[in-house]
What we know:
The protein contains eleven helices and 16 strands. By secondary structure, it is of the alpha/beta class.
Amino acid sequence: MRKRVPFLDLSSIHRDLEDELVAAFRETMRTCRFIGGPMVEDFEKNFAGFCDTKHCIGVGSGTDALRFSLMASGVNPGDTVITVPNTFIATTEAISQAGAIVDFVDIDEQTYNMDPAKLAAYFETKCHIDNPTGRAVSARTGSQVAAVLPVHIYGQMADMDSIMDIADKYNAIVIEDACQAHGAEYFSAKTTRWRRAGSVGISAAFSFYPGKNLGACGEAGAVTTDNEEIARKIRMLRDHGQMKKYHHEMEGYNGRLDSVQAGILNIKLRRLSGWNEKRRRHAAYYRGLSGQTDGLVLPYEPPWSKAVYHLYIVRAPDRNGLQEYLARHGIETGLHYPLPLHLQKAYSAMGYKAGDFNVAEKASAQVLSLLMYPAITSEQQDYVIGTVKEFLSERRSVA
């Protein structure tokens, strides 16, 4: 009988934690503190400690976290924010919803993260300097570049020292999209220590969508920051612009974190480091057994990185053929992401065309996500690896 290997299995985690999760739900029912309250505050304190930041502000989703980070960190309507084209659209939606203008730089071919060299080239060749402010003004958008938004894609942090240095040179802030990088680390030569995702930029956004390394049982997100004023503004933005009930300092949003989700996240947070270590072991297992895979590019982890492998991405010239072959053998896979944002219909008005971001476009045509979650077994990985090798061997024979 053909095996079935699921791409993601969330039920294994929730079966093991069922009694604790149900107890958290019952506590919410008992206290009737459904929005805010001690459970949310407890999670915020614990997650701030996990990320090594002074503040964590729980919000309704990762998109809320991105939007509120931009708005509270000093990005104004009409400003330009630079990010990458190979990310989920929530990154750019948040920029637009904050009233800012999106623009892109290409990615590094090995890490799939923002390429610092291309970021520097953007400032040097596609901008001029506004003398009064010292900020770069984008020739494409006609507005000042207020922020750089690197995405720690697939669970690996971008080269933050380089990005921070470039942004500082042009008086731009850096906000981390850490929605896939809970617990990822980066060795900063500037500070001579390992830094957690969410602790390097002026602020950072996290998503706790159920499939994340730290996932809720529904929608949830958070912002981390060391900046007291940013934290204060986000607490108002998430709650209709109020710090005191019915006293509104600004117009805000309904973007609060539910107590039930906070309680669930608190329980899972205690296991996150262990789960991340299992993901790293699974990644090493893939590497150790994937010799002789001509034409297959495995993930690259620089020496300054400790990735947490939210996704395990391989690249194959015949990605679609590989995906179909695996599916015929009962192996589920994912595509993250098959069409870069600059070529999406939603952004056709930007005027970008095929060939403008060659690395992102090449990756989008070749990347395939293999199963990666804490509970996968060596038998499942052996089957996946063996089937991939069979596909590559058949292709070599045909060639």
